[in-house]
Backbone:
């Protein structure tokens, strides 16, 4: 029999009514996950369905709050590695917390109302799920302690102690990349000093059953370096910073007489650019993130930048690269008959693949097997695209554009270019409707491809900045209108003969009307 007839019961029902306006009921849920996702993670889908049912009845107030408090306490520790470390270091405090969680569940148990059988069964189901969650929470500490011990013992055989990082700061620093997505904290972070060590660490991670996530500068925009499982090891490559000099020597994949440069995977992109420039050459891979990205990340993302118009992206400029494959062996890839230009312009691009024993230094390791890849040039990108992000496979070419899924790149040799003698940078500002301005990107490219190129002027780079970007960088217009342009194009036009290059504008050009309008000097 339902006994809500007396006043005190009614008062309790009033107190128990859920406040409707609160979006987050789980305390400490300052994360990007909604309460629903947290309940599902900690208690499971079925428990969420039950909880949702009970909430709809609007009689769950105080009890629900107590349950949320239990979930909030678990959640805040799960998401905060500083608290985890503190509780690992203080078994007494840990015990007190777990006792408090059990105590709250016991209190909930006491509040059960057996008179409403159906409802009480649902409450019982929730309490069992919450009890299991507390037990799992408790077990996770033991598991974490055990796994840390095991991992430390194994990894110490291959790397220095300070390269093996379980501390909260390292884990937090590797929880996300430029996307700012956060899913799981990594179990540990490894920062090897050498290429050889890297292969050994990958093998050890495989033995430990960890998911390996290679990481360079962490500037990726696709979340490729974001751990999706708590049992992951982020391998930070930033200490693999050996950088050769720009040199014209016989090297694997480099046609004779061509300048090239060796770089380990963790070298910051800008450092390669500078080394090339010192010798009078150009390193074509120039993402806007070059001050922070690393060349391993550039290969894994097939990065490009302004110079991609002239010389393509990472894939076009690689002569040779080495990686640790998913078995912990070396895989060396050499481009054969490099065309020193864009890869899609050759009918077939050929690569030699050699797998070597990962337990030995790559220069001394014996070849385990070899394979030759012949990939149709046109397969590397769709017409007019810098890179085709929808095609991760790229004819099965290892490492490039794979976002670290098929191995960890440790080193590469790059083709270098010579910049033509003369360069003009042109700034075009577009006002009015952005949609009218956009076709000019294609028209300028086509014009310089067809007409100007044959006259010796080549489009070396074309950067598009939209209105939001202009606002973000505090762009100041060259026009007297005072308003921000809808779009700005920055173009680099190069040539060997100054007189064949387009005339040097006095300042920048402001194109006031769309594509077909003439450039005018303000
Ligand atoms: C402000 C800004 C501007 C940008 N501009 C450009 C641009 O102009 N052009 C462009 O192409 N991109 C650009 N990007 C995207 C990004 O910088 C590039 O994708 C860059 O190549 C990533 O390099 P990283 O070292 O930071 O890689 P990370 O972010 O560390 O990793 C990116 C991916 O590569 C994998 N990876 C990293 N290192 C290795 C390795 N050694 N072996 C195997 N896999 C590895 C990771 O697992 C992850 O999947 C920009 C990003 C930002 C934030």
Residues:
């Amino acid at each position: 029999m339902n006994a809500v007839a007396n006043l005190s019961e009614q008062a309790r029902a009033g107190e128990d009514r859920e406040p409707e306006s609160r979006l987050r009921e789980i305390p400490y849920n300052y994360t990007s996950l909604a309460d629903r996702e947290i309940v599902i993670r900690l208690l499971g889908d079925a428990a969420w369905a039950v909880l949702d049912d009970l909430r709809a009845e609007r009689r769950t107030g105080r009890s629900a709050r107590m349950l949320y408090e239990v979930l909030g306490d678990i959640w805040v520790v799960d998401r905060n590695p500083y608290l985890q470390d503190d509780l690992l270091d203080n078994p007494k405090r840990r015990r007190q917390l777990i006792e408090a969680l059990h105590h709250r569940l016991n209190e909930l148990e006491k509040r059960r109302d057996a008179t409403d059988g159906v409802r009480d069964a649902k409450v019982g189901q929730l309490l069992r799920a919450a009890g299991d969650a507390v037990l799992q929470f408790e077990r996770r500490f033991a598991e974490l302690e055990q796994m840390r011990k095991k991992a430390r013992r194994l990894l110490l055989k291959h790397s220095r102690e300070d390269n093996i990082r379980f501390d909260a700061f390292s884990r937090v620093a590797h929880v996300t990349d430029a996307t700012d997505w956060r899913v799981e904290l990594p179990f540990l972070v490894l920062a090897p000093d050498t290429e050889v060590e890297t292969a050994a660490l990958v093998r050890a991670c495989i033995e430990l059953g960890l998911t390996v996530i290679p990481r360079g500068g962490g500037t990726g925009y696709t979340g490729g370096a974001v751990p999706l499982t708590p049992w992951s090891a982020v391998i930070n490559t930033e200490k693999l910073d050996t950088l050769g000099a720009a040199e014209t020597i016989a090297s694997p994949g480099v046609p004779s007489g061509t300048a090239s440069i060796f770089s380990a995977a963790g070298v910051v992109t800008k450092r390669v650019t500078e080394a090339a420039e010192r010798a009078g050459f150009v390193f074509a891979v120039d993402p806007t993130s070059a001050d922070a990205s690393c060349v391993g990340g550039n290969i894994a993302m097939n990065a490009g930048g302004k110079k991609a118009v002239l010389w393509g992206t990472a894939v076009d400029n690689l002569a040779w690269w080495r990686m640790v494959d998913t078995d912990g062996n070396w895989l060396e890839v050499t481009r054969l008959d490099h065309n020193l230009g864009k890869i899609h312009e050759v009918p077939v691009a050929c690569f030699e693949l050699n797998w070597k024993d990962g337990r030995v230094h790559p220069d001394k390791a014996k070849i385990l097997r070899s394979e030759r890849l012949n990939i149709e040039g046109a397969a590397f990108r769709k017409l007019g695209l810098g890179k085709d992000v929808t095609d991760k496979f790229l004819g099965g070419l290892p490492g490039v554009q794979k976002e670290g899924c098929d191995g960890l790149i440790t080193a590469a040799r790059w083709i270098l270019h010579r910049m033509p003698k003369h360069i003009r940078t042109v700034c075009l500002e577009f006002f009015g409707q952005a949609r009218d301005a956009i076709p000019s990107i294609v028209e300028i490219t086509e014009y310089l491809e067809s007409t100007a190129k044959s006259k010796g002027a080549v489009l070396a780079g074309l950067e598009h900045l939209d209105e939001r970007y202009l606002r973000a960088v505090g762009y100041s217009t060259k026009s007297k209108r005072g308003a921000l342009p809808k779009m700005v194009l920055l173009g680099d036009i190069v040539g060997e003969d100054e007189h064949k290059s387009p005339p040097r504008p006095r300042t920048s050009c402001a194109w006031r009307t769309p594509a077909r309008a003439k450039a005018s000097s303000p």
Observations:
- The radius of gyration is 30 Å.
- The chain is about 35% helix and 15% strand.
